[in-house]
Amino acid sequence: MSKLTWLTQEIDGLKEQGLYNNIRTIGSAQGARLIVDGKDVLNFCSNNYLGLANHPKLIEAAKEATRKYGVGPAAVRTIAGTTDLHVQLEQRLAKFKGAEDVITFQSGFTANLGAISALVSKEDVIFSDRLNHASIIDGCRLSGAKIVAYEHNDAGALEDAIKEHASNLRRALIITDGVFSMDGDIAPLPALVEVAKKYDILFMVDDAHGEGVLGKGGRGIVDHFGLHGQVDIEVGTMSKAFGVVGGMVAGDKTIIEWLRQRGRPFLFSSAVTAPDAAACLAAVDLLEESTELVDKLWDNAEYFKAEMKKLGFDTGVSETPITPVMLGEAPLAQQFSRELFEEGVFAMSIGFPTVAKGKARIRVMISASHDRDDLGQGLEAFARVGRRLGVIQ
Ligand SMILES: *Cc1c(COP(=O)(O)O)cnc(C)c1O
C-alpha cells in the first residue's frame, strides 16, 4: 500500500463504471470534419456553433495582431497587460450586447469565479439553479456565501427559497445558467427576473451557450427575452460560438467597475493574448454584419432534431442546437459513442458527474459549419448504431 493506492483504486472504479474520460486527440482545425486520433470523422461535439474557430477573417485578424503585439500578454491586466485591443473588445461587446459595460476574463470559468466571489461573501446567500454549471458552483463555493439550490428552472421554487432564507441575511444573489449545457433547455428569464425585482436581489445569468446563438444575430439570452437593463450580470464566453477563447461579464457599469477592482482572476492572472482579442473583435464584426451564420445554425439544429425524433430517439427537452440523445446507463452511452466513431462520426458520451447517474447520453452539437450532407451522414450513423444496440427499432 502506498499513499497513492487510493487513486489507482478510484481510477479503476471509474473505468469499471464507464465513467473514465478517454480523451481523444484532434489533429486538424475545428470544422464540420476533424482528424481525431488520426481518423477523418464528422464532428458532432464541438462548441464551434458558428464555424468561426477556423474562419479566415478571424485567422487574419489574429495574424495581424501577432505581428503588431507578439504572442504573450507579459503581465496581468492591471499592471501592463491591457492592450488597446482588450479595451476595444470590451467596448464593442458592450455595444453589441446592448449592455452598459463589459469586462473580459481569460475564460467563462474564470469570469464566473471572479464575478461571484467579488459580489457576495460569508454573510450573504446565493440562490442557484440546481443544474448550474460547475464553474458557477465553484464560484459560489469560493465566495463563502450560503448556497441555496432551487429546483431547476422553477421561479416559484426560487421565490419559496428566498422567503425562507433572505430575511436574516445581508445581501443575496440569484444565479442561473442561460442555456443548460447538457440538456439544451433555456432558463425562464422573465419569470426569474420578476422574482429578483420583487425582492430587490442581484440577478446573474451565465449565457455561455447562448452567446452567439440566442437573440438577434447571437446577441445572447438577455436580447432573446428583450430584458436589456434588467439583468444585473450577464456572463458569457468567447470560447464557444465566438470560436476563440475568453470570458466576459456584461451588465451594470458600477458592477463592471467593481470587477475591474476586485475580480481576482482579472487582477492576478494574465489575460487572453492580443491575437485572441483581435480574433474576438473580428467575430463581433461578422455577427454585426449579418445574421446568416446564426440563422443557418438554427436551421440545421431544427432539421437534425426533427429527423432524430422521427428515427425514434429521445432528444430530451432541448430548445437549442444542443441535442442530447438520452441513453440512460453510462456504459451504453460509451459503447454508442465508440460505435459511432467506427462509423466515422465523432460524438462523445457524457455521464456522471457531468450529468446525473442513469442519465448518460451522447450530446450532439450542431453547427453552422455542417451542411445537409454532413447531417445526413450523422443521421444514418445514428440510425445504424441505434438499431444495432436496440435503442431504436
Ligand atoms: C462552457 C461553459 C463555461 C466555461 O466557459 P469557458 O470559456 O470554456 O471557460 C461556463 N459556463 C457555462 C454554462 C458553460 O457552458
Main sheet record: 7 strands, mixed
CATH topology value of the largest domain: Aspartate Aminotransferase, domain 2
State mean pLDDT (0 to 100 scale).
96
Kindly report the spatial arrangement of strands forming the biggest sheet.
3-9-8-7-6-4-5
Count of helical regions:
14
The rounded distance between the terminal residues' Cα atoms is 50 Å
Q: Could you tell me which ligands this complex binds, including any ions or cofactors?
A: pyridoxal-5'-phosphate
Which superfamily, in CATH terms, is the homologous superfamily of the largest domain? Type I PLP-dependent aspartate aminotransferase-like (Major domain)
- How many β-strand stretches? 13
Radius of gyration: 21 Å
Proportion in β-strands:
15-25%
CATH class descriptor of the largest domain: Alpha Beta
- Domain count, please report it: 2
Outline, from the CA principal axes? globular
Give, in order, the helices and strands: HEEHHEHEHEHEHEHEEHHHHEHEEEH
Give the % helix.
40-55%
Record keyword descriptors for this entry.
7-stranded mixed beta sheet; globular; Aspartate Aminotransferase, domain 2; 13 strands; 3-stranded mixed beta sheet; binds pyridoxal-5'-phosphate; 43% helix; 2 domains; Aspartate Aminotransferase, domain 1; alpha/beta
What does this structure look like?
- The chain is α/β, with parallel strands linked by helices and 393 residues long.
- It folds into two domains: 21-49 and 291-388, Aspartate Aminotransferase, domain 1; 57-289, Aspartate Aminotransferase, domain 2 (3-Layer(aba) Sandwich), CATH 3.40.640.
- Helix content is 43%, strand content 16%.
- It has 14 helices and 13 strands.
- It has helices at 5-16, 56-69, 84-97, 108-119, 134-143, 155-165, 189-198, 221-224, 253-262, 264-268, 274-289, 292-311, 330-342, 372-388; strands at 33-36, 39-43, 101-105, 125-129, 146-150, 172-177, 202-206, 233-237, 247-251, 322-328, 345-346, 349-350, 360-365.
- The protein has a seven-stranded mixed β-sheet with strand order 3-9-8-7-6-4-5, sandwiched between helices. A three-stranded mixed β-sheet has the order 1-2-11. The chain has a three-stranded antiparallel β-sheet with strand order 10-13-12.
- Helix 4 (108-119) runs parallel beside helix 5 (134-143).
- The longest helix is centred in the last third of the chain and has 20 residues, at 292-311.
- The chain is globular.
- The termini are far apart.
- Pyridoxal-5'-phosphate (PLP) is lined by residues 107-109, 112, 133, 135, 177, 181, 206, 208-209, 237, 239, 247.
